[in-house]
Here is the input.
Amino acid sequence: MKSWNPDIRVQRESFDLSEESRRVTSDRADVGAVVAFTGYCRDEGETLAALELEHYSGMAEGEMLRIAREAAGRWPLLGLTIIHRHGRIVPGEPIVLVLAASAHRQPAFEAASFLMDYLKTRAPFWKKEHLRDGSEGDWVAAKEKDDSAANKWR
Amino acid sequence: MKSWNPDIRVQRESFDLSEESRRVTSDRADVGAVVAFTGYCRDEGETLAALELEHYSGMAEGEMLRIAREAAGRWPLLGLTIIHRHGRIVPGEPIVLVLAASAHRQPAFEAASFLMDYLKTRAPFWKKEHLRDGSEGDWVAAKEKDDSAANKWR
Amino acid sequence: MKVRYFAWVRERVGHAEEEIDLPVGVTSVADLIQHLAAKDEGYAAAFSEPTVIRAALDQEHVEHDMAIGGAREIAFFPPMTGG
Amino acid sequence: MKVRYFAWVRERVGHAEEEIDLPVGVTSVADLIQHLAAKDEGYAAAFSEPTVIRAALDQEHVEHDMAIGGAREIAFFPPMTGG
Here is the structure.
């Protein structure tokens, strides 16, 4: 098995799904499954103009790396990428990518789902809404069900 | 909610993940989550030269469509793409893509996982191995655990 | 009706498809399997373990006890290994 | 030590970070929250519901009963909403 490190990025720019998928699968033929989750900014029934994503630089990367290593310890993964954007993001644009590669599909699905549940509750990012009517909206409230989703992996 | 039909394709050619993702997310901002599963041909410890994928043309598309509609009935999906390749595929190349779009992550994860479990056991495709030593290998045997994975959704 | 064979069922039978007239007394999928298995060594090898063989009537999965009825096409194949 | 604030905690406090000297008697994260809440109306608003506030010591999540010890940086923020 090739050795690998999780690929963790916090960035303003968007990302390309095909390119990220190639990055974990190229020059090898032991990967049988790649699950890529992309989270998008929704317009919330055409009310949202944009989300402003604030983050805790340094801790964000550190926490994403801890979550990635936790996943690598739980499942036989062959590659792992987490990209989280910050700054202003408009509806229809991607916010986050989690990509898990494995020999078989089950570990890739479970690791990607686990990573998203943990990212939601442990990665220091906060979303503020800017509304289409020009007003500054609220900070998005954390969801109870995100906590319970994360707790199910304990 | 925009109306949509599952996008079902059986083809020799490969596919582009970014392009397929754009196809289900462009011109709309109600999609919050896309889960894309890509299955790849592995080299099985450097023994495999290629897989030859035989399929039952017509029934393959029909069965993929039935599986897709079953998923659309179970989860609140906003888009669904299934691409399955046939013909000769060498290690490192993709074989299958399942892509599920939804407002939230849970339905997208579950639908993609369900679709893969069902494809494995109900879509009429068969893999024959061609080995690196020049010999014609065996037909890949169906796995007991694929049946049990599919049964868990009943 | 048209009978189609796939994967190792096709290889053992020796061809991918054929037209047959259903003999008197052959009404279910299981009946047809039994009838075909008796044709020659290739068919016998293809259908030596009937329980592993999957069948489709007019391109839909069916169990072996299904009546063939007026189907235009029947297919026999091993468990599927796609995905 | 450096204290950092994020999201609506930052907005209510009125700034993103500051340097403070830990007062005598302030040893845990909870102690510091109580101390900060008494500073002015903005801080009081930020920490009015201490149980919803999350804390990190040197960029790692901690519970409120954690001792601050020799940490160089502490951060306070609402429940996270990334992903």
Summary: Chain C has a mean pLDDT of 97. Chain C has three helices and five strands. The helical segments of chain C are 7-13, 29-37, 41-46. Chains C and D do not touch (no CB pair under 8 Å).
